[in-house]
Amino acid sequence: MRAVGTILVLVVLATVVATGARRWRIPAPSLLVLAGLGVALVPGTPPLHIAPQTIALVVLPPLLYASAEELSMRDLRLVWRPVTVLALGLVLASAAAVGALAIAVTGLPVPMAFVLGAVLASTDPVAVTALGRRLALPGRVQVLVQAESLFNDATSLVLFKVAVGVAVAGAAVDWPHAGGEFLLLAGGGSAVGAAVAAGVAVVRRRTADPVLETVIALVTPYSAYVLAESVHTSGVTAVVVAGVVLGRSGHKLSDARIRLQLQAVYGVVVFLLESVVFAIVGLELPTLVRELPGGTGWWPLQALAVAALLIALRILWVLPLTSVVKPVGGTASWRVAAVVTWAGTRGVMPLAAALSIPLVAADGTELPGRSLVLVLTTAVVVTTLVAQGLSLAPLVNRSGIALEPEHTAREEARTRRRLAGVGLEHLDQLADLDAAPTAALEQARRALDARLQHDQQEAGEQGQGGGAGSVLAAYRQIRREVIALQGGELRRLYEDHQISDTTRRHLQYDLDREESALAEGP
Questions:
Q1: Is-contact 142 132, C-beta < 8 A?
Q2: Rg of the Cα trace of the chain?
Q3: Where are the transmembrane segments (predicted)?
Q4: Which of 74, 117, 267, 279 could form a cystine bridge with 36, CB 3.0-4.6 A?
Q5: What is the dihedral of CA 341, 342, 343, 348, to 10 degrees?
Q6: pTM, full prediction
Q7: Distant-in-sequence, close-in-space partners of 349: CB < 8 Å, separation ≥ 6
Q8: Cα–Cα distance for residue pair 435/451, rounded to 1 Å
Q9: Residue 403's Cα: distance from chain center in Å?
Q10: How many of the other CB atoms lie within 10 Å of CB of 12?
């Protein structure tokens, strides 16, 4: 009962703080971490202990899935090379550098030092997506930091398993075995994710019930995660692959009404889970610090040193790659590198990994240095979420690479005019063929003309003489045909790189609302 009460309090606290963050235009993860830290420091606050499987199984799958669905496949095809370099090379370099630094400044045993390096080697997709969601980053830059955080899991997870195995058993590193395990985790997780996506696609094509569709969408990430973990592959990779595949084909699997409902439901789920999990990060740190053994009082400086090393190393890796993702307009590479570096924060996944470190070694003795690894991991996560999170938006604005609101507005207006033109061309064809009632065509034309002029007034549904019902039915059918044509044109403009992913999503949402209103009309 106490656990249920704690969860409810966390939900209320996180919701209030996240709502305030939106109102004050402060990144929600940063403010939530500070709020959790502040609550944990209040005298009398009970210690918080979160089981690692709670975060890994309950929280991560839907957040990863939602982030993967948002990934622009078009832009990913343009930046897959730097994403691969960061997801493989930077993770390996970060793990080695943090491990070496930990040996030098923390006194951790060598195996546990490299466990710390493996835990902190990769950026966190939940934090990266949450921080970047409200920034007007160019498509390639946003996809680079988001895709890197989604696809570096297999690398860091293999390193983590190898390092923990050495720390627990005291055995030497078997690199050929580690390479095979990487292929199993990455390849097996990808295969499971693709298989789950294919199965879900088959089911959703044959389902028209909004409630059932919503249940399927909520269960999909958990199914991919559990299935992958049960066959000893990467559950996180499976969820990401399933999300990317289904996100790309979502418009073919359901109608507008169901898509709108899924967006609303997932918006609530993501908001609640993100809010609670970032508050937990702040709440965990004081509890972990109180459990530290004596002689570890230098942990704040050690955590700052590790965070500084991760940022410096990231700059060195990112700078040579930014020419690939340079926005149109010739913005200097160092400005892009600064934004990409600062957007790569640590977050929920490192915390979940650190909590899963075994308590005892193979001989039954307490695993040395585990508590310090937990504290340093959480402290680095808090540092990056607060320091980078609060300063990321000002850095983006000062860098000159942010998309101006006027730019987005002009692109949307231009695309709306193009879609309205496609609809009017279709009406002209119907009129030439005498394929629909004149009254219905005129009503549809007035609606398109109003949209073309940014008039939000809905077209009237008054009939003209007898047969008003048939005219209304014909009008709705014409509007559905026009919306289908406009949706196809919207996807063509996106695939031809004429509009951004943000514009595509906004206008597709508008088309879905329009189509849903037609279905709900009298």
A1: yes
A2: 26
A3: 78-104, 110-130, 150-170, 182-203, 234-251, 263-283, 303-324, 336-360, 372-393
A4: 279
A5: 110
A6: 0.78
A7: 60, 122, 124, 125, 126, 153, 236
A8: 23
A9: 20
A10: 11
